[in-house]
Amino acid sequence: MSTAPGRRGVGERIAAGESRRRALEGALGTRGVVPASRAAFPSRLHDERIAAILGLALGIAFAVCFATGLVSHLAQHPLDLGLLSMPAEPAWLYRVTQGVHVATGTAAVPLLLAKLWTVYPLLFAEPPVRNAAHLVARIALVPLVAGAIFLLGSGLVNITGWYPWSFSFPVAHYFTAWIVMGALLVHVGAIWAPARRGLSRAAARAPEPPGDGLSRRGFLGAVAAAAGAVTLLTAGQTVRPLRGVSLLAPRDPAVGPQGLPVNKTAIGAGVIETARDPGFALVVDGDVARPLRLSLADLEALPQHEAELPIACVEGWSASARWGGVRVRDLLELAGAGEVREVRVSSLQERGSFRASRLNAIHAAHEDTLLALRIGDAPLALDHGFPCRLIAPNRPGVQQTKWVARLEVRA
Amino acid sequence: MSAPGPRLGDEDDGGLRFWLCAVIGLGVVVIATVQLAGARLIGSVGSWAAYLLGGLLVHDLLLAPAVVLISIALLHLVPSRLRPAAQATLIVAGSVALVAIPVLGGWGRRPDNPTLLPRDYGLGLAIALAVIVAAGLVGAARAARAPRAPAAPRDPGGW
For residue A116, is it within any domain? Predict the structure, then answer.
């Protein structure tokens, strides 16, 4: 490079009102202020435009996961939330939101790793802190990056039924998501201008930086291919047509007794004896005029209904089945229940966090909310909740209580 | 050398937008952390903190440096025109292998529930990696046959 005409020194530039940083750059060229990190990481892929595009993709993925996660949280917690109560229709809603939650989180793994790799040199930036804003932005990166890795990692581990830790996964996953969202807001504030620059039309038209190896376009294409590959290899646990290619899915929606996967088995729940007891009786009580005690034969003698409904697990798998049994609302009517606020559904299971669930008024009154006795034409398998289980539209699987022993009405 | 464009790491230096985002965002971080630590059902908060920071350290101190080492190896072992195909293959294969770790380990298997982790994941991963590597080889073969691009300025490439 020949000497630029009109080259001025650093002092002159500062005197002319340029910032110290700009003056150094102008006087010495980039190399003069290239931090050590830039020399150590010469790849052209540590690039602002790549960081911006991956950041946007990751931001969308995390927003989708957060929104669908909130839906799942609301679906599993106090159900009487007025307008925020989980609706009973459409029946497939939770199946879709939770399937999307897990699939998006899985696809975000290559996006997050690519993004972290793109900006990895900044970990060693010189100077480490430029000003107060830079300090705050860097501090916020700790909860952002640690939290993002935690959310994706713990989610991937949880869906395989593995709990190597001693915290509650749903509680930790939920609050960590809020931590990440807060830290993400700080990050967006910090990178707003460069991100806009990186996503601008001018940046799109700019030529590829020189160098060999993957181009920017090629790199983004490879990351997209990685996200697509992990999606295809796992999404078949809920998107049934993909089950043939989803070689790494923790579930196969067709594998299980009566063609349905199981989360909690009868052995695991400790109900083998009680569920098979011929003296089994379902109790309907609480705020009712005529408490009921119904044997399996009594239940079979009541009007029967059928509904095609999915079991949609929080762990992201789902499978549909044709359920037959007694409508919950018919049972409530038989017991003389008036205005129902909530129905507490309890299992024969004596311990465990999901031995009971609550039906909100909308679900309790829905025509497809059944105390199911059959899948297709066959009695429920023991692992699916024999002698009877709850099945209702648009509910997480953990709330579809099995081995139901009691419906307690709260008016 | 062409004029340097905006570079990675040229962040805002703290306008109103930044401080607004910072105050609200850090507020959410603090509230959520306090709520988590105080949640009735959380179990061990220490275990959560260990996994949270452990993940960060595993990435920054193990995974990222490992990628750097692999990149250096790639620079020395793979001719430059085949390098893009090699890089893309490693990105896809590495992602798939990483996501496969929990199912491959099968630590969640329970004897009473054969519907959980029902597949042969070793075989599944082998098939997936074989397909990815085959696609990479096709890409490499096409790159090797393509006419050589006009000599570009020498650049060390990099990682």
Answer: yes
Give the mutation candidate from B21, B30, B132 for the A interface (greatest A CB count, under 10 A): B21
Residue A383 DSSP code: G
Q: B113 contacts in A (CB within 8 Å)? A: 161, 262-263, 265, 268
Please choose, from the candidates A64, A22, A56, the residue with its C-alpha nearest in 3D space to the C-alpha of residue A187.
A56
Domain count, chain A: 3
Q: Are residue A238 and residue A369 in the same domain, yes or no? A: no
Cross-chain Cβ contact A182/B121 below 8 Å: no
Strand A318-327 vs strand A281-286: parallel, antiparallel, or unpaired? unpaired
A270 and A191 within one domain: no
Tokens linked to A366: 């829905």
Domain containing residue A22: 1-33
pLDDT digits (tens, 9 = 90+) for A116-139: 999 999 999 888 998 999 999 999
Burial of A250 (0-12, 13-18, 19+ CB in 10 A): buried
State the ipTM, two decimals. Answer: 0.90
- How many angstroms separate the CA atoms of B154 and A12, rounded? 35
Q: Which residues pair with A312 in a beta bridge?
A: A318, A396
Q: Is the pLDDT of residue A304 over 80?
A: yes
Torsion angle of C-alpha atoms A185, A187, A188, A193, degrees rounded to 10? 150
DSSP H helices in A77-168: 93-119, 132-158
- Contact in structure between A390 and A345 (CB atoms under 8 Å): yes
Q: Are residues A79 and A156 in the same domain?
A: yes
Indicate if the alpha-carbon torsion angle A229, A234, A239, A242 is positive or negative: positive
% helix, strand, coil for chain B, step of 5: 65, 0, 30
Chain B, nearest residue to A180 by Cα: B29
> Does A172 map to a domain?
yes
Residues A18 and A67 in one domain: no
pLDDT (tens digit per residue) in A286-297: 999 999 999 999
CATH number at residue A306: 3.90.420.10
Nearest CA to A105 among A68, A141, A51?
A: A68
